[in-house]
Every structure is written in C-alpha cells, then in structure tokens.
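Standup, Tuesday
Yesterday: got the pipeline producing structure tokens again.
Today: sanity-check two examples.
Blockers: none.

Example 1:
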Amino acid sequence: MKDGLRFVDCDMHVMEPPDLFECYLDPKFKDRVSTAVGVDSRPRRGMIVIDGLPTTMDVELQQYRKRSRPGATLSTQPLSGSRLADTGRLDFAVERNYNAEAQVMGMAMEGVDVAVLFPTTGLSLIARDNLDPLLSLALCQAYNNWIHDFCQYSPDRLKFVAMLPVHDAHLACRELLRCVRDLGAVGSFIRPNLVNGHYWHSNFWEPLYTLHEELDVTWGFHEGTGAWYSQMNVLYGENRFYRHVASHWIEMQQALIAMIIGGVFEFHPRLRVAFLEGQNAWAPGLLSRIEWDYPQYRDSHAPYLSLTPKEYFRRNCWAAVEGSEPEIEATAGLIGADRMCISTDYPHFDSNFPNVASNLLTNVPREIAAQIFLGGAQLYGFTDAHFQKADAAAAVGGHPAKP
C-alpha cells in the first residue's frame, strides 16, 4: 500500500537478462539472433540483431548526441531531477542485476501491492514489418517463458502481460491462450504502430480481439519509439527527442480513433484496452474532436456506432499517468479518475521512481489519487482476493530490506 491506499502498478518494467535467448530461444532459431558479447564470450546488454537487422533503429541514429556526463536538466515536472541517470536511485537494482528480488524491492519503495510487468528490450524485439511469423512466435515464446519464470519469485505480486507474434493473428491467438492458461498472463501488450499495414479496425485482428474478450484479459497498447515500422521515423527523421515526444501521443491517438470510429469497441463491448506510457491529457481533447464530427459523418461513415466517444472510452478504456503531470486532476474531471491508472515505469531513465506515488499524492486530492492507484486493478481484473494473496505473500516473505 501507499499511505493506506491500494496500489497496482499498471506498467512496471523489467530489464531482460543478456542471456535470455541463449537460455530460452528454440535452438533452431538461434542462428538468426545475435547479441553483444564480452571478453568472456558471454552475452551482455547491447544491440540485438535479428535476421541481420537491429531490433531498433535508435542504435543507428543519434547515439553520438546522447549526454554521457552528469548535468542539469530543465523540466516543469515535479521532482524531474530524480529522473537523471546519475542519481544512484537504481544502485540496488544494478547490484542485483535487475533480478526479481530487486523488482520486489522497487515495489516496496513505491508502495506497490501488485505490479504488472512489461519488457524493455522486448518492446522492440518484433517491432518491424515482414518478420517471419514463425521466428516472431519463437521470440515471443522465449520472452514469455522467461518472464513467467521471473514472476515465480512472488507470483501473487508479480504479474505479466504476454508478448504476441502479431505478424500472424492466429499464431498470436495460440500464444495468448498458452500464456493465459498455462503461464498465468493477465493480458498482452502490443505497440500502437501498424503491423504490415493492418489498421486496428481491420478484420485481421478480429480473432485476437474476440479471444481477449473470451479469456477476460487486457489488451495493452505500449509505445516505445525507435520501431522500424513507425511512421514517426518518416515524419521526424533521426532526432529521437522529436520522435519520442510525437510517438507516445500520436500513435496512441491513432489507435484510439481506429478503435472507436472503426467499431472495435462497438463489436467487442467487453474488450478492456489500456493506453500506457503516453500520459493521458491527450484523451479528452481527442474524444471531443471525434464527437464534434459525429453529426457530419456518423450516419454516413459509421452507422453501426451506438454510443458516444466518451461512453466507449468509459466502458472499454484506461489510460495511464506517471504521477507528476500537471494535467492529471483536470483530465480526471473529464474522463473520470476511475478510467486512469498509474505506472512507476521502473527502472527506465525517464521514470520518477521512487517518487511516482508520492508525486501523485502531492499533485491531486487523495480521493482522486485513490482511484488512480486502484485503476490498474479494474484494468486487469484484480479483486480483493488478489490483494489478500499479495498481502499474504508480502507477510510470509517479508518485504526485502530497503537499500
């Protein structure tokens, strides 16, 4: 808990081990994946190359411009200084090589009851068009098997969402079914970038939408910048600052437009969709813009729609914040605090960890913060029983000592 309030981290990250593919990838695909190695010939963190192409275009763009020395930064966000890489706030995790013990330590520092885990390297692992579907599946299976094992350190507190081989919707369905039934996944994550040009309202995705409903698990959109198939690369070129600002909002907006106007929410009323790591101040204005065009286009272009944009959003959607955004209270008044959730974004460089929860409590009234802290429970379908198990797990094992 945080200050007596239940707290589900809707989007906490892991740092995958360098030898993940060496240990978990199907051997028949290993010659198609190469990783950086050290002088001991063992894998180390660095560029991953799949079928001759790095997993992210950012390794080839603008690396020489990255700040390598400590220094001041300018931001209107409260406590933004805690986001600097040189603060030492992650020393405890580095010392433990970002293992599951460190994950639970980070949760204790923020007051998180249950955390839903997302990848770091894995966000870009299959983020390209025209990837061999069977290789895509093998990569996803390797990650999913590893993250399942990672969560076994404290399975009632550590949950995960599955990586899906989206280059073939039927393979994706099979992997989702395996992950939910056999491994305990609480949903899936998918980047909002179009895959092989398939729009989000395309029938290509129908089997996967339906299966998410039937399994009662969450579909999470999570952007990451640097994907080869992102239109932001074409629009904004090599400047990562430009692309990072644009992609996290614009790609999310395009996905939400498609889901509403294209009828995904109309035909899949029980589908729960999360918009993660893109803040959410963009949502109210976009919903108003769609509604502005309803009188002109609804009857002629989308006669199947039976609800207003805001009604679809409030029924099907949640959008995440990271605690320090100055627009949180105003946004809550427009879309409802119960349709918001919060991410610590641990252990990423632009996270305010370990001050995310404290920032939120400082930033908004307690009753609004309480709903946002609990938003992830509604999003992922966690009940009082889940919290009771999480409490029992924390009590039996005890929270690891804080660093």
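Example 2:
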Amino acid sequence: MTLEKYSMGIGDRFSHQGEAQLSAFLNAKEKGVTIVPVWNKSKREHTIIGSSPSTVRLEADKAVTALNWKDAYYVDADHIGLNTVDAFVEYADFYTLDVADFIGQKPTDEDLYSFLALTSKYIGSLVISNVSKTFLITEDKLINIAEKYLVAIKEASKIYNHIKTVKGEDNFVTEVSVDESNEAQSPEELFFILCGLAAENIPVQTIAPKFTGRFNKGVDYVGDVNQFIREFEDDVAVINFTVKEFSLPMNLKLSIHSGSDKFSLYKPINKIIKKYDAGLHLKTAGTTWLEELIGLAEAGGDGLEISKEIYQQSFLRSSELMKPYATVVDIDFEKLPKPEEVWKWSSEDFTNALRHDQTCDKYNIHFRQLLHLGFKIAAEMGDKYYDALKKYDRVIGKNVFENIYDRHIKILFLGE
C-alpha cells in the first residue's frame, strides 16, 4: 500500500462532517491537484467522546460512497502504541506510530554497539545536497543520538511488526511520530533516526518530526517563520538523500502534526514542496469540531445557545479540559470573556471571536483555544448536540468545507 504524494488528515470528533470534508478534496481534484483524505482519530479522543475506531471507518466509507470519490482514502490509527493499537487493526490502514515517550530512554549496550557499528562510517564531514550546513559527525555525537532516539526506534519496530502480523505486509501505511517530544530534532538527528528505522526494516512512508516553535491546537504557528522554513527545507533534503542512502520507500515525506491553521507557514511550505517536487502530509483534525461550533452559532436560536453553553462549561472546567493538552495550548485567562458576557453575544459576536480570521479585530485566540478543548462538553450533551448537528447540517457543512478548502488546501497545496 503506497501513500500518495499529497495527503491530509481530516479528523472529525463527532463523525458527522465526512461529506463536507471530502467535498473540499473534490474541489481540489477539479483544479488538477489530487490530495488524498486520511480520516484520523486518536485513542485519547475516542476515550473522551465515547466513540470507537469503527465509527471513523464508517464515516469515511459513507462519505466516499455518497460523493463517488474514486481516488484512495485512508483511516488513520492516530498516535497509537503497543498498548492501544489492537482496537484499531480491524478498521485502520494508516498507522501513526507514536514513540515520543521513549525518547531519552537509555538503550542496552548491545543495541548501542550495533548502532555505532551501523553509523560509524559517517564519522567526519557529512555533506547532503541542499542542506544549509555540513554535519560534523563524531562518535560522541552518535552516542548522544543513540541515547536519545534508539529506544524509540526499537519501539517503532515492535509496533510495526505487531501490526504486520495482523494486517500482513504492504497492507497499511506506516507513519512514525516523534513530534510530541520536548526538543525539536535537528536535520542530522532526522538523518540518523531514518537510518535506524531503515535498519529495523520499517517501510516508513511519512515521518513527523518536532520542529522549532509552537504548534498549538487550532491556531497559527508561534515562532520564527524563517527558522522553521530553514528546518523544513533541510528536512526535505535529508529525506531525499536517505531514501537512496538507506533504500527507504521512494514516497517518504514529511508530516506536520498539529498542522491545522498554521497559515503563516503554508505559502513558504508550498514553495518548498514545489521546488523539490516533494510530498506532504498535514494533520488538521481539531478544526472541524470548531467549524461545527461556528455553524451552530451562525445558525442562531438553539444552535447559538448550545455554543454558549459549551463555552460556559469549558470556562468553568478549563483545568480538567486542559490537562491532556497542556503542552499544545497557551491560554491567557485574563483575555477570555466571562461566560455571563458571552451569554449576551449575538451570533456575529460569537463567530467573530471564534472563526480563525486574523484580519478581524474581534478574533480571540484564547477563546478559540479553550473551545478547541471543549468537545468533551459537547459529547456529554449527547443527543442534544447530535440533534443540533443534524438540524443545522447545511450551515455547518458550509463552514467545514470553506475551512478545509479556502484556508488550507488552496494555500498549501494549490499555491493560491
């Protein structure tokens, strides 16, 4: 199973927006660019909502049938490990192996010596075409890289081989994720991570490193854009080199996690992937849920009331909601409106504060981040929330489509 050049994660917390999401990909197809959809949902999200992996497969299949989508599509077992993967194997054909928790664990002496034997030929100056600097490789540096990443590489091998025994070889796409680590990986670290994955015979098709800067949920990139672009371009060059050097899959590409709404990065990324004819995978899971809220608020009436109620409860239970996502949000509570104020808002007030339009002076990045976490409140509403999604399907679907197509696909993949 070979993942196509351009792919995009389209998670949907409540499994109602599949057709609205897929319609954006059909629009791109009409413009001459094929991007394959990857429906993704993590164990954490299933646990919070009370859903199961089967619902993601059902949503994807239904949308594809309804819209007569003829190209490939995938269902991603998002951020899984050995302890969580089994619940997904019947339904997923894309697996994001999350090994970030194993970064920094000390390898065995035997594994360390094997890694040094594998990599010692690179000691000295390592020059990779189109990388912004020459790597000076020493044995101490190799030991340091091994002590950081070798156990994580070995864990990826365990997960991959476990999936392979169930699914069979070549019947799924493998992504390796090291993005939820404390430090960004340098291009030379990425080189040796890929070296280790190749030595484990993992046919990795997409890898998600951690980049410099903040990739907070559902909001724009925070950091030095120029520095990110240097890192991204270096990583693309490293991938091009390692594909040949280590006989990795020819379609290996970078994956940007928490990539939704990183608008300041999209135009530069588009230039780089065009320059190198490179592929890209972008995850955008959480923003569809926010577009549901925007649609409900825009609809007015009980839709607006539900949106306000979710905000009030999110405000009151913020500590609880932030706990699983503390590393990927930056909320200034002094800049959040009080619930009693929000109850007085019109539909326009609510949507202006929430919709990710940085030209609007009413847009509130802290309000948006808090509500990004509030899907647990919506899940607890049960039928009240699900009935509202059905009642206001048209206006919600319009917002979901416009978000994916106009704010993401057009800029990142079409270069418009």
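Quick observation on example 2: The domain at 6-105+148-285 is CATH 3.20.20.70 (TIM Barrel). The mean pLDDT is 96.
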